[in-house]
Design brief:
Elements lengths: L6 E5 L4 E5 L8 E6 L4 H13 L9 H15 L2 H19 L9 H9 L5 H20 L25 H8 L6 H10 L3 H5 L5
Antiparallel strand pairs: 1-2, 2-3
Helix pairs in contact: 2-3, 3-5, 4-5
């Protein structure tokens, strides 16, 4: 921006994001999106931030989460990293994306998790991801681990139901659109989502 150096807009395929980059540190900070935030408001926000450059020591959730997702993709199996990213983007990003990490409170994160307790398994998965993320963020000095000492919001239910021999035979002899798919599930003992993403050569 000619009127305010270090302030600009990052144009992606689908979004236009207002950013500030202080010259001495080159740390990019997201301050909003166009057209939700108009130019005059974005420039005023950037000017306020640049007047107190210490604020750039505060990484927001979205920035740190993108780093975390990238790290986990390199460290874990594709299925694990896929699920981790899905849980974060669906349940944590909408409310936390633009919040500075030091400003996020335990009660806020636990509230997001407890809001999906009607599906206990989902709530447990999101809790585990949140706990893992904030432990990682604390180790990098972004914030304290606000999930330390928190207990899972529900207990996982173990599935004990298995098919009888007769049921297995009936499934194997079934015909129709999904017959081959059902047989593959029976043979491989994979989850439906795992088999759906499999590639056969």
């Amino acid at each position: 921006d000619a009127k305010l150096p270090a302030f600009g807009i990052r144009v992606g395929k689908t979004t236009r994001t207002w950013i500030v980059i202080p010259s001495q540190r080159r740390v990019r900070k997201v301050i909003g999106h166009y057209p939700t935030m108009p130019l005059m408001k974005a420039r005023a926000t950037a000017r306020s931030l640049l007047a107190n450059r210490d604020t750039f020591d505060e990484v927001n959730f979205g920035e740190a989460a993108e780093q975390f997702i990238t790290v986990q993709k390199a460290r874990t199996r594709p299925k694990s990293s896929y699920d981790l990213e899905r849980h974060m983007r669906r349940h944590l990003f909408p409310k936390l994306q633009h919040r500075a990490l030091p400003d996020i409170k335990t009660v806020t994160v636990m509230g997001l998790i407890e809001a999906i307790l009607e599906t206990p398994s989902q709530a447990i998965h999101v809790f585990v991801v949140a706990r893992q993320f904030f432990r990682w963020a604390a180790a990098r000095g972004y914030c304290r681990n606000i999930m330390e000492g928190q207990k899972p919001p529900a207990k996982p239910k173990r599935r004990t139901r298995i098919l009888s021999d007769d049921e297995s035979r009936n499934l194997w002899s079934a015909t129709g659109l999904f017959a081959d798919y059902a047989k593959l599930l029976l043979l491989t003992a994979q989850r439906r989502c795992e088999l759906r993403r499999s590639h056969f050569t």
